[in-house]
Every structure is written in C-alpha cells, then in structure tokens.
Design goal:
Two copies of one chain form a homodimer.
Chain A (H helix, E strand, L loop, with lengths): L1 E5 L3 H13 L3 E5 L2 H10 L4 E5 L7 H11 L4 E6 L16 E5 L3 H14 L7 E4 L2 E4 L4 E4 L2 E3 L3 H12 L4 E3 H9 L8 H14 L6 E4 L3 E4 L6
Parallel strand pairs in A: 1-2, 1-3, 3-4, 4-5
Antiparallel strand pairs in A: 6-7, 7-8, 8-9, 10-12, 11-12
Chain A binds a DNA duplex through helix 5 and helix 7.
Chain lengths: 223, 223
DNA sequence: AGCTTTTTTCATATAATTTTCACAAAAAAA
DNA sequence: TTTTTTTGTGAAAATTATATGAAAAAAGCT
C-alpha cells in the first residue's frame, strides 16, 4: 500500500510519513504538483494525501491533472479558512478532506477508511497451488511448510506475484526492489532469482526467464 | 461475548453466525430494525453487525434509535454502491463498516478489532502452553511460576501477543510502545527483546527475528 | 541524598545477507 | 557450425543486521 504525500512543508510530510509507516504503509513524497504528477505517472500509488495550498503548482491544479491520469483516491488537506467552494464538485465518495490542524490519528482513520472503501485493501495472503504467502507474517510456505527466504528473496517473490504474467525487466526489478539509487551489477538480480528459484523447490519454474528482457512469474500451465 | 446480527437475508445471517461461532462468539439474530431494537433493549449485546439495507425499518433508522439506547459498537454492512454520504457523521472511531461482498475472515478481523478497541473483549488473561499473562494483575507466569518483567518488557510481550503472527517493524514497536515522540536508538528495541527473551526462558523462541524487518511472535511450531 | 532498578546507549562480536565476479551453459544470430 | 550474446551458477568478498555485554543515564524509592 503506497501513499503519496504532497506538501511543500517538509515538516508536515515527515509527520505524516512517520505515522503512516507505523501502519506499514509505504510512502512517497512530493514537494509540489509537478513532482507529484511525475510520480503518479510512473509509480503505483494507492492514495494521495494532498495539501491544497502549495507554491508552484497548487493542489487544485494538480488534482485536475491527476484525475485525468488515474483514478487514485485523494485526501485533501486544507487550512480551515481556505475557500471551501473550491472543494465543491470533488467526488467526496472517493475522496475526503481534512482541515488543518488535524490529528494524525484522524488522518490515519481516514486513510484506512478510504483504502477500505475503494477496495484497495491488501489481501493478507496469497495462495497458488501449494505456494502460500502470509504477508503480515512475512512468511512463505510450500505445501504448508515454511521456507526461509531472505528479505530480498521475499521482496522479489512478492513483486513477482503481484505482477504475475507480466515480463519484468531487470531495470524494473532493480528500481522497485533495490530503489532508484542502486547502480549495481546486472548479475545481482540473476543471482537473487537463482536463489529464489532454489528456495521455491517444486515451484521454481513459476519464474520464467524472458530472454532479452528479464523475468516473468507465470501462474498458468503453458509450457 | 454476544453479537447481534441484523440482516433480512437469512443466508447472510447464517454465514456470519457460523463464522462467529467458530470464534466462540454467541450470536443473536434479528430480521429487521424493530426486532433488533427489542433485542438491544432487553439483552446484553456487545456488538451489532448491521446490514444498512433492509425492508421495514432500515439500518440507518435503527442506528439512530439504537444510539439513543445504548452505546454498542456497530459494524455496518453495505453494498459498495450505496450512498456513502449517509455514513458520514458516524463515529468511525467506534464503529466500522464493510462493503459487500466481504470475506468472513475480514469480518472476523473487524469484530475482533472493534471489541478490543472498545475494551469489551479485554480478556483478563492470555494463555499459550505454559505461558500465561494475567492482564489485570500485570503479571506473567511460566509454568505457573511468576516471572518478573519490567514495564517495557511487559508491554512488549503484550504487544507481541496481541499481534501474534505479524511481523512487527522496529518502527511500529517504537511508536506503539515508546510513543510517537521517541527518537532513540534502534538498538534499544533489540536490547529489550533480548531481555524479554531471557526472561521467557523456554519460550524465548516465540519471539522470532524477522531479518530486515523486525520481530514476530509465533504461536505455531513450524521450524 | 544515597541506593536500587529500569531504561538507554554503544561498542564489539557474531551471524546472515547481499553483491561481485569469473566462468559455464544456453540461446540466438551469423 | 561457429560466433556472439545472454543467462545461470558457485564461491569469495563486501556489506549489513542483529545479539550481547557492559556502562551510562534516568527514574524510583526510602
């Protein structure tokens, strides 16, 4: 579950980030509308927390643009005195708003409510044949026996699973799992895939090599 | 722990009832708002599971009436498309809602969460094998012998126990046990976990290290 | 204040994970 | 078939995370 926090004040972003992380949400930050637009174009974001009042591109402008791109629910933050009118017309069934100052607790409640409402609840487990992932427990089972994966292997597997059927390039994998700032060897991924495959035992073939591209997690039995 | 299930469809009531009983909740059923009102006037009910859409007296009307009578937490069931607006104003801190179709498992999780939150379920003790926690007495026993834990150790243990099976990050632990305003060293947690483990003696392995994440309390015997 | 207990910090040891790299194997292209 | 490109693999090296002991700091107690 990834939240995008858009606010020009670092302090506010940090506070929200801190609280969000206690609930295990991942967070991405943007300082202004431009940055935010870039992010929603390139990353999977489940919810946007948006300060309406910002320099450069203000919240409303961003919102209009954003709604054209993707349908991501938004929690709008605004000072009590800002024009309420502007908020009219927004889909309060999908979105929500909160006036500053707000209590972090309330924000968290709203976040939860919205994510739930929009059906974005992360399932707490994945299962395919004898392969099971217990997300909250960070555990993976094969035929009901837990297999021990390292963090990277686990992350890899989760990413594969949520992108089943899609060929993922090494670059994509690097960016998503290692982060944008990783400049390591390409063989690194191969090595991790190797180890993951080994650990998956009978399910090792679920991770197919897509030559010239990367890897793909398949859940059908085509040969 | 008695749950009142209010829904006009017998099928739904039955499903909920069945699942609820697996968790040892008693259930009482009502087919409509009138019946439900009667019941909460005359019986001790800890939680209401309420379909918002019903003939005769609908859920909202019932809810308004019910809130006058007693302060019982409510889980509202609604179809995804029903007007969200109506739900505004309800105390999402106390109540909760779920859109149909929902997984029984999720419903159970919510029930648990709400009962816990509203302090109704606070069992006064926890027991797993020879490990016992006497909450009111703030005491912990191992094989019927009291072990002396410091406050932090006790809090840690309780938090682990109520989140059994879930990998808890250091951040989460810090925030929940130390509070949001603690900016201490990460090793602090390790140290407390170490001490707690030592004090747990034979049960020290219930607290597993989840490398790269944090710790997890496990209650099953997988190796 | 002095003493005890608890909490926190921190340095070091230990263990596990991650990365690199050279070469083998496989696939694709020539 | 031969060459070229790409991927697989094992093992070592580098890095990172956790466990632990001991000491400092803080909080309680009498």
């Amino acid at each position: 579950m990834r939240l995008l926090i858009v606010d020009d004040e670092k302090l506010i972003r940090d506070v929200i980030k801190t609280y969000a992380e206690t609930e295990n949400y991942e967070t991405v930050e943007a300082e202004n509308g431009f940055e935010a637009l870039e992010i929603i174009k390139n990353q999977k974001i489940d919810l946007i927390i948006l300060d309406i009042m910002m320099p450069k591109m203000d919240g409303m402008t961003f919102l209009e643009e954003a709604k054209k791109t993707a349908n991501i629910p938004v929690i709008i933050l605004s000072a009590r005195n800002e024009e309420y009118d502007k908020l009219r017309g927004f889909d309060l069934g999908t979105d929500d708003y909160l006036t500053k100052p707000f209590s972090p607790k309330e924000l968290l409640a709203r976040i939860k409510a919205i994510l739930r409402r929009s059906g974005k609840m992360t399932p707490d487990n994945y299962e395919y044949k004898g392969l099971k992932i217990d997300y909250p427990g960070h555990a993976v089972f094969i035929d009901n026996k837990e297999i021990k994966l390292t963090l990277k292997e686990y992350e890899l597997l989760c990413y594969f699973v949520t992108n089943a059927g899609i060929a993922l390039s090494r670059n994509q994998l690097l960016n998503k799992i290692w982060g944008y700032d990783f400049f390591g060897d390409d063989r690194t991924i191969d090595t991790h895939v190797k180890m993951l495959r080994n650990n998956l035992g009978p399910y090792r073939d679920l991770i197919k090599t897509v030559r010239g591209v990367g890897y793909k997690f398949v859940i059908d039995d085509e040969k």
